[in-house]
Here is the input.
Amino acid sequence: MAKLDEQISTLQGKLSQLKLRQQRLEARKRAASAHRERKLAIRRQILVGGIILEKLEIGEFDRQVLHGWLDQALTRADDRALFGLSPRPTHPR
Here is the structure.
């Protein structure tokens, strides 16, 4: 009976190790997938930005429309400065 208990204990230990290994593998897969998605999102942003900038250069897109979008969307002072926008006023708390 003691030998059977040892075998059960050993197998439970192996099962725990395999479950941990499986969890780590799944976590790596999720991380790789998230990394791939981030790379694709960045690539999409670069491509869209490039197209808009090209359309601006050849006069097919209104600069004022883009300027308005940037003025509404950008909040960080350094981002706003990059596009020649004045910093947003800070509100005292």
